[in-house]
């Protein structure tokens, strides 16, 4: 469920969902974009460069975290808020998006719309076979009826990053 992918209980899920919702509504990431783009006048040039670089690293971490945390079992609102939060950051650059930011997004786009994941049915079947073997019993079903080890699934990170 969506709750288990966010730490195991609904209190964490609701807390994380609210943070994501705020990121999309208030567009907190835009503050980092402004730090990357602007030059404070009261700092020496090396301090300005360091501040810009730190802001860029934090922005890249934020974008990566937002996209990575979207899972296929989450409600559609999670992906929608993630899309808005990331898009706000990209739009704020007015066409001159730093390569580091593009790299973070393109990693997920490059993964494609479909991903291979471990098949839960195969895990359960393998556990049943192992248990039967341990008890020195015949397997619960023939090897030919074992489910495939992996299945294809929609890649939700791609869907967010590709928007």
Give your account of this protein's structure.
This protein is 62% helix and 6% strand. It is mainly alpha-helical. The protein has a two-stranded antiparallel sheet.
Q: What structural category characterises the helix and strand content? A: mainly alpha
Main sheet record: 2 strands, antiparallel
Number of strands: 2
Low-confidence stretches: 1-8
Layout: helices, strands, pairs:
Blueprint: H1 10-26, H2 29-37, H3 45-68, H4 76-92, H5 99-110, E1 114-118, H6 120-134, E2 150-154, H7 156-162
Antiparallel strand pairs: 1-2
Task: Jot down its keywords.
two-stranded antiparallel sheet, disordered N terminus, 7 helices, mainly alpha, 163 residues
Question: Outline of this structure?
Answer:
The chain is built from seven helices and two strands; from the N terminus they run αααααβαβα.
């Amino acid at each position: 469920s969506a709750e288990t992918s966010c730490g195991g209980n609904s209190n964490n899920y609701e807390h994380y969902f609210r943070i994501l919702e705020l990121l999309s509504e208030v567009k907190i990431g835009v503050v980092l974009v402004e730090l990357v783009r602007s030059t404070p006048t009261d700092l020496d040039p090396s301090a300005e460069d360091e501040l810009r670089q730190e802001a860029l690293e934090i922005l890249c971490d934020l974008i990566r975290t937002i996209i990575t945390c979207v899972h296929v079992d989450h409600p559609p609102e999670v992906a929608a808020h993630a899309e808005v939060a990331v898009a706000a950051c990209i739009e704020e650059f007015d066409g001159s998006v730093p390569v580091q930011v593009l790299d973070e997004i393109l990693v997920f786009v490059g993964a494609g719309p479909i991903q291979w994941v471990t098949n839960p049915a195969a895990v359960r079947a393998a556990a049943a076979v192992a248990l039967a073997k341990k008890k020195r019993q015949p397997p619960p079903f023939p090897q030919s009826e074992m489910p495939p080890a992996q299945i294809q699934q929609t890649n939700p990170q791609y869907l967010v990053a590709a928007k």
